[in-house]
Fold this protein.
Amino acid sequence: MNLFDLNDRVAVVTGGNGGIGLGMARGLGQAGAAVVVAARNHEKSATAVEGLEALGIRAISLHVDVTDSNSCRTMVSDVMRCFGRLDVLVNNAGTNIRRQPQEYTIEEWQTVIDTNLTGAMLCCQLAYPLMVEIGGGKIINIGSMMSIFGAPFAAAYAASKGGMVQFTRALATAWAKDNIQVNAVLPGWIDTELTRRARAEVKGLHDRVVARTPAGRWGKPEDHAGIAIFLATAASDFVTGAAITVDGGYSVQGVG
Ligand code: NDP
């Protein structure tokens, strides 16, 4: 038995058209899964699917805006129409609006919470009966270093990502009886579109991250392929409710 085999499995990655989501999608596809890239930007999704197909991966893109429950419902029913099953759900879609806490408008706050946390809840609710129907499933929720730490510019983001870890634990306890394992991945500082903006907006961020990270570099999207495969396969069948850092040691650095 190959513990890391995903042949005949179907994996949905929200926000899978770039960054960490695409890094995970590549890993899941290379382990044998058919991959659904679910995001808003059609052009980016089409390019991502082309790239996956070039690696020999069966992939499609579907539109979803995770802040819209109807859009999530349509996306999941399209997955069922195309593949007839849903084995792995990666709740990766995410955004950030950087402000001092006292400066958030309620709309900005809501955008971050809705995208990062409520969107994951909606997708999990829709995936649950489908996973039960096939005897189990795997849910991977993307947290952050802001699931653990705070930052002056990240009140909304940290609230959403801290919430993601507690949400993961709650689901793990509820759905273990259904053979659904629910885990969170907490990436360190990873070079993506999201953090390119952060590097532009937060002075000195690039160098401070390199200095604090024992691995001595920013992470790359492909650094997340392995953890995605582990948490999506039989290799992790007794792992649930965990929050696993993929951060080059950033969160255990005791000096600096
Ligand atoms: P990207 O900006 O590259 O990816 C974010 C993805 O989310 C995009 O593909 C985007 O696609 C999608 N997305 C955003 N809003 C929505 C929405 N409403 N509905 C559907 N999809 C949406 O950034 P990252 O790869 O860095 O981020 C991926 C995840 O990793 C996020 O949850 C982020 O918080 C988390 N993370 C990132 C870290 C980093 O250092 N980069 C560190 C820790 C966590 P589209 O615009 O086409 O919808």
In short: The beta strands are 10-14, 34-39, 59-63, 88-91, 137-142, 180-187, 243-246. The mean pLDDT is 97. The chain is about 45% helix and 15% strand.
